[in-house]
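Let us practice reading a record.
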Amino acid sequence: VQLQASGGGLVQAGGSLRLSCVVSGRTFSSYSVGWFRQPPGKEREFVAAIRWSGGDTYYRDSVKGRFTISRDNAKNTVYLQMNSLKPEDTAVYYCAATTRDWALTDILNYDYWGQGTQVTVSS
């Protein structure tokens, strides 16, 4: 299984970006996918996830109401729409996949990782 993340960039505070994660290699619809981020000098942290069965979504508190995760099974792609971006959202963003559909906020639950994409929010 391979994951390819894209869509990062430099944006002013209050702006928007949409990240994409293309998953290839096996049946995409069988994977739950999460987004994680690693701010400068900090550990990687959970951002959002979408369950493969039922499509339930999960978010860290600080992004609720601003970020939306969605998936397009026909395109093997998961999106992270990020609105009202803040400087504290600056990080390298990673997508990850797992065949499990529980504990999706737990970084240790993910088996496959893509390369990161840099998101920088200027004040």
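A brief commentary: The mean pLDDT is 95.
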